Amino acid sequence: MVVAHQPSNEQEKLRDIELPIIDLMAERSQVSKLIVKASENLGFFKVINHGVPQHVIKAMEDESYGFFSKPASQKQRAGPANPYGYGCKNIGFNGDYGEVEYLLLHTNPLSNSTISNDPTLFRCAVNGYVEAVRELACEILELMAEGLGVPDTSVLSNFLRDSHSDSLLRLNHYPPLQLLQLVNNRIGFGEHTDPQILTILRSNDVPGLQISPQDGFWIPVSPHPSTAFCVNVGDALQALTNGRFLSVRHRAMVNSCRRRMSMAYFGAPAPNARIACPHKLLSPHEPNLYRPFTWDEYKKATYSRKLGDTRLHFFRVQSDHDDLTE
Fold it and tell me: pLDDT for 140-169, tens place per residue?
């Protein structure tokens, strides 16, 4: 496993650890156990034999490459990302910066006709892809619930199936950088955790993703096998499992020779959905770590801070941090 560009901070160390690769066509109870174990230990894993048709993936990839290959003036017609649309280098509203351009789309039917020369074709590609990866996310969440012993195995997937789900699709493009630029420009997308429930990530065969399950250590994530999706736990799922599953910090690094493209589906609840750990996972010995909160409440706390800021500890029971807007 190789990373093209290592961070200059000597305190950071790279560890060569492969993420678990889970075959979703294997025996169901075993798959469930493997997913739970990976979610507890690393917060990241890969899935193969996932059921998302290759032609659906290719259609979305082709449309993504087509969009990012346009002149800057045409891409900017789809922006700014406020909150949905095209963004370049500036990430969010709090001064975060990276060597990335991206297109952020809500998973409800698209209305922006400036994204593609053929809006109908683009819309069909997005809707087909979102439907397929949402089903994959729901299947994984139900396997998680089974592995956790929750009687209602749809308790997690129902968040994503809600017609008012706030799920997103983000297309990221990391252009290649000249070697001389890499001294100052090696971070494509800075370290952060995903605030949603579950992320389903598809990328091309260019490495760049790194995760940090332990402070000071980074694990490069190989883009192989090429048929796999990378799955990671979000903040909301960590709260829903009372801290049993880990929402782990990660980042994207640039490549000097080849462009990297990724497509991330962020499965999120409806704005008024209540995030609270199921009683089945609580006991006198394991009291609730987090107070109940709505997705809208957590989303506002997220967007009021910088990309790399921690957020979930503000929602811990008996937290000393009660001001969510400072």
Answer: 999 999 999 999 999 999 999 999 999 999
Q: Please name the residues in contact with 210: beta carbons below 8 A apart, sequence gap of 6 or more.
A: 3, 218, 219, 220, 221, 250, 251, 252, 253
- Pairing verdict, β 249-253 and 209-214: antiparallel
Residue 264: enclosing H or E segment and its boundaries? strand 260-267
Half-sphere exposure (CA, 13 Å, Cβ side) for 238?
27
Pairing status of strand 198-203 against strand 274-275: unpaired
Alpha-carbon gap, residue 279 to 292, rounded angstroms: 12
Degrees, nearest 5: CA angle 52-59-169: 70
Place of tokens 């089974």: 146
Which tens digit of pLDDT belongs to each residue from 192-247? 999 999 999 999 999 999 999 988 789 999 999 999 999 999 999 999 999 999 99
Give the CB-side neighbour count of residue 321, counting CA atoms within 13 A.
12
Helical spans, DSSP H, in 1-53: 28-41
pTM across the whole model: 0.91
Q: What are the structure tokens assigned to 299, written together?
A: 């989303």
Give the 3-state secondary structure of residue 278. coil
Catalytic residue among 170, 251, 260, 311: 260
Mark whether 260 is an active-site residue: yes
DSSP 3-state of 309: coil
Question: How buried is 178 (Cβ within 10 angstroms: 0-12 exposed, 13-18 middle, 19+ buried)?
Answer: exposed
